[in-house]
Amino acid sequence: MQNKYRHELKYLVDERDLVLLENKLTGLIKTDKHYENGAYEIRSAYFDDYKDTALKQNIMGVSPRFKYRIRIYNGDDSYIHLEKKIKNHDMTRKESCNLSYEECQRLLDGQYQIQPQDEDFLKQFKAYAAMNLLKPKVVVAYERKAFICPEGNVRITFDRNISAATEIGQFFDKDIGKRPIMPSGKHVLEVKYDEFMPRYIKAALNTGKLDRTTFSKYYLCRKYSIGT
Questions:
Q1: Residue-wise burial string across 69-81, b where 16 or more C-beta atoms lie within 10 A, e elsewhere
Q2: Which of these, 3, 146, 149, 193, has the minimum number of CB atoms within 10 Å of its CB?
Q3: In terms of Cα–Cα distance, which of 8, 9, 61, 6 is closest to 210?
Q4: pTM
Q5: Rounded to 5, what percent of the chain is helix, strand, coil?
């Protein structure tokens, strides 16, 4: 699957302002209907090469750049995505495909043999991973609540309790060992939209205190992970 570029804005927010924004958005736009109360856990295993190219490009602000990751929701091993996230300044897009649990485990183990039945995107990943000696470097985990609006295809997410884990073998474990990477009470607000964002949503988000950031969960989880 390939998506077009979208705007992606990120903000550091404290708990008080996050609750205020949630209250303002509740009833104004809908929460993600796929998850109860719009809340769910995300885990992503990020890949990088032996030179940590993706990490270094993130630090230097190289644009465009990309990262590969495997993502699951609420620990569900029946719904697994392999994703390539491409960032070009404040614009992002994703390419992705579904993975079986068995295929996911092979990729996490560094087995990149291309199979005839593989989707084109998976073949591309395997070829790139084998050529550049990619391996999973860190697991990023957090709790997300999402609001959506069809006008402008707006998606607003509140990410709490962002943590890092280095034991890739525990990716599907309920009690994966992880380490918080954010100061106490600090969270991340992300705003994504296509060509425009409705004025009433802009007004709801205008607290006068939002701190725009180039925040990268991958970078901070690598920075604060032991042995990386």
A1: bbbbeeeeeeebb
A2: 3
A3: 9
A4: 0.93
A5: 25, 40, 35
What is the C-alpha to C-alpha distance for residues 110 and 113, in angstroms, rounded to an integer?
A: 9
Half-sphere CA count of 25, side-chain side, radius 13 A: 29
How many CB atoms within 10 Å of residue 176? 17
Q: Which superfamily, per CATH, for 6-223?
A: VTC, catalytic tunnel domain (3.20.100.30)
130 burial via Cβ count (<10 Å: 0-12, 13-18, 19+): middle
Question: What is the residue extent of each domain of the chain?
Answer: 6-223
pLDDT by residue for the chain (228 residues), tens digit each?
557 899 999 999 999 999 999 999 998 999 887 666 668 999 999 999 999 999 999 999 999 999 999 999 999 999 999 999 999 988 999 999 999 999 999 999 999 999 999 999 999 999 999 999 999 999 999 999 999 999 999 999 999 999 999 999 999 999 999 999 998 899 999 999 998 999 999 999 988 778 788 889 999 999 876 444
